[in-house]
């Protein structure tokens, strides 16, 4: 394919153009296009390169802003003269263009790192293997309802960089993946939250849990004694990481297993929070909008953030009581013939599925599993499957490892290769009072574009029953 066929020709110099400073953006999704706009606003010469096809929406934005771009290729002559490169978190280190950039010593950073340079807003940064989307959404909900001027970004919402370029928020709540954290160096979180560390994405970390954990702990780098680090005191890997580091921030743990002087803990049925500024908060857990043990942890983390910011208790309670979870994360779809259908398509690893099952009734779950297996150890689910699950519906192109793990452990396992077939099979296996739970424990790329499409097709199939 001729290079010039895929490179846009529109270009307009910025009135603020920095002499000799050229920013290249790899990946033209939400984060990349946002970074390109902010870079142009800040006076860089900007070029965007995507090895795949660029969605029409983003192509139109780049053209409207007169930002040069290419798709379906990486042209080295356009990229290797960069002063700095902003890389999409989805591009792995093993990608050839990234290897060349590293070899040449050209700085490669994330959109979050880049955007963080151009805002003086207070940053609440949230990471973890599981629960970060829910906790980020809940924290944003509490802050916004309390009247704070707050933005939502990272893995959720609109591009952080684009918001920095176009808004004047005083606070940001950011959901950060390990891939984002890997390319962050000077970024500082005023309040950092680490929910948990369980095996995930290990193919990006040489299959070593300690490498993945190190990535998660990058969230505390650059914090000072004026900042706060909120973490789960019941999570073994997190405690191991805290133990081997000197963390400058003030530590605020949370636990459902033991009482804590500072942070959050359970006192019977009461979620109790104490923060260093003598702020105290109590809420009965039965009044939380998010139920289940894992969601008590999520609510604790959000609650600590709220009390660090000295929000009113009444406002926090109202927000924690009326929050609606994000789509595809333990999302109630419908009750049909007395059977409850739950969409947990965002559960792309075993631990997420474990959390989902943990909150389900004993012996009454028809579980839909399967997809692209990332090296899953299904043994972690064995105890919960025996206790909670009456049947498994496999939804994937290769279900052999699910069969190997659970044949003989549940009464029935069936194979399907579409959301429609999976829902219909589950409906036939379920009886009144049961729950059909889509919580795949796998990535979606064998049958779907992403977990969102998987969840939407599941919901559509349910509504067609």
Automatic annotation (TrEMBL):
GO terms for molecular function: ATP binding; UDP-N-acetylmuramoylalanine-D-glutamate ligase activity. Keywords: ATP-binding, Cell cycle, Cell division, Cell shape, Cell wall biogenesis/degradation, Cytoplasm, Ligase, Nucleotide-binding, Peptidoglycan synthesis. Residues 126-304 form the Mur ligase central domain. Its main location: cytoplasm. Gene3D superfamilies: Mur ligase, C-terminal domain, Mur-like, catalytic domain, NAD(P)-binding Rossmann-like Domain. The keyword Ribosomal protein does not apply. Transmembrane segments: none annotated. InterPro entries: Mur-like_cat_sf (IPR036565), Mur_ligase_C (IPR004101), Mur_ligase_C_dom_sf (IPR036615), Mur_ligase_cen (IPR013221), MurD (IPR005762). Its EC number is 6.3.2.9. ATP binds at residues 128-134. The keyword tRNA processing does not apply. It catalyses: UDP-N-acetyl-alpha-D-muramoyl-L-alanine + D-glutamate + ATP = UDP-N-acetyl-alpha-D-muramoyl-L-alanyl-D-glutamate + ADP + phosphate + H(+). It holds the Pfam family Mur_ligase_C. PANTHER family: UDP-N-ACETYLMURAMOYLALANINE--D-GLUTAMATE LIGASE. NCBIfam families: murD. Cell wall formation. Catalyzes the addition of glutamate to the nucleotide precursor UDP-N-acetylmuramoyl-L-alanine (UMA). This is UDP-N-acetylmuramoylalanine--D-glutamate ligase.
């Amino acid at each position: 394919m001729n290079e010039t066929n895929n490179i846009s020709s529109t270009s307009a110099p910025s009135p603020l153009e920095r002499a000799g400073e050229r920013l290249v953006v790899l990946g033209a999704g939400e984060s990349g296009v946002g970074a390109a706009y902010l870079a142009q606003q800040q006076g860089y010469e900007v070029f965007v390169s995507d090895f795949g096809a660029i969605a029409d929406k983003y192509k139109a934005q780049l053209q409207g802003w007169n930002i040069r771009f290419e798709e379906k290729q990486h042209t080295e002559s356009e990229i290797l003269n960069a002063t700095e490169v902003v890389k999409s978190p989805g591009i792995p280190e093993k990608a050839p263009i990234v290897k060349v950039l590293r070899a040449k010593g050209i700085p490669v950073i994330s959109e979050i790192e880049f955007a963080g340079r151009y805002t003086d807003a207070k940053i609440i940064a949230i990471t973890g293997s599981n629960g970060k989307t829910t906790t980020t959404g809940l924290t944003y909900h509490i802050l916004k309802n309390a009247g704070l001027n707050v933005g939502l970004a990272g893995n959720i919402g609109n591009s952080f960089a684009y918001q920095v370029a176009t808004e004047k928020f005083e606070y940001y709540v950011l959901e950060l993946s390990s891939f984002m954290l890997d390319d962050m160096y000077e970024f500082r979180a005023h309040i950092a939250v680490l929910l948990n560390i369980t095996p995930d994405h290990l193919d990006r970390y040489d299959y070593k849990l300690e490498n993945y954990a190190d990535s998660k702990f990058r969230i505390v780098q650059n914090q000072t004694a004026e900042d706060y680090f909120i973490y789960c005191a019941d999570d073994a890997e997190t405690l191991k990481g805290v133990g081997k580091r000197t963390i400058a921030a003030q530590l605020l743990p949370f636990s459902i297993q033991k009482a804590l002087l500072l942070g959050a803990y359970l006192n019977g049925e009461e979620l109790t929070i104490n923060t260093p500024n003598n702020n105290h908060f109590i809420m009965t857990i039965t009044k939380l909008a998010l139920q289940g043990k894992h969601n008590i942890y999520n609510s604790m983390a959000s609650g600590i953030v709220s009390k660090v910011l000295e929000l009113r208790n009444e406002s926090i309670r109202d927000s924690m009581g009326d929050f609606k979870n994000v789509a595809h994360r333990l999302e109630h779809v419908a009750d049909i013939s007395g059977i409850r259908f739950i969409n947990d398509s965002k559960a792309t690893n075993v631990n997420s599925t474990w959390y989902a099952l943990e909150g389900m009734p004993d012996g009454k779950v028809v579980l839909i599993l399967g997809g692209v297996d990332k090296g899953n150890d299904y043994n972690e689910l064995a105890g919960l499957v025996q206790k909670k699950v009456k049947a498994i519906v496999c939804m994937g192109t290769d279900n052999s490892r699910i069969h190997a793990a659970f044949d003989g452990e549940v009464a029935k396992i069936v194979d399907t290769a579409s959301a429609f077939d999976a829902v219909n099979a589950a409906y036939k296996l379920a009886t009144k009072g049961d729950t059909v739970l889509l919580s795949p424990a796998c990535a979606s790329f064998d049958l779907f574009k992403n977990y969102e499409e998987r969840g939407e097709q599941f919901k559509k199939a349910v509504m067609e029953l």
